[in-house]
């Protein structure tokens, strides 16, 4: 029974973090605000919930954003590469953070940037302004989001631990 409770708890927290991430998208703020927020939520999810939950969030956010009209139609062909970039960001951070958080953020950010930059330069055809948006700004928003995640995750973990303790009646 304990395993079922853990699974329900993890699913609930993943849904909560997905909802928070989507809320940032729905605000339709400029990329320099939305990008760091989304990237921060990806890494906060990785730190608190684990990389599998973060990968789910990283896959769903661009798809939902496209379906809801937040990502404009010219970005449609980029969605698989956005997902790939998110997954690289999450996975590399997850493994490298065991060595050093700063190194993990740097390498994960560069990998995300590289995946998107290579995609728009060599694989998919998108308008020039979209291609520009999917290159260097991605590196900056990933780096900033990573540092925001490092700052906020201990506080969010503590808050979730308190909620878990109260939910268990302790």
UniProtKB/TrEMBL annotation:
It comes from Natranaerobius thermophilus (strain ATCC BAA-1301 / DSM 18059 / JW/NM-WN-LF). The keyword Transmembrane helix applies. It comes from the Bacteria. Keywords: Membrane, Transmembrane, Transmembrane helix. The lineage of its organism: Bacteria, Bacillati, Bacillota, Clostridia, Natranaerobiales. This is HymD protein. The chain crosses the membrane at residues 6-29, 41-66, 78-96, 103-124, 136-156.
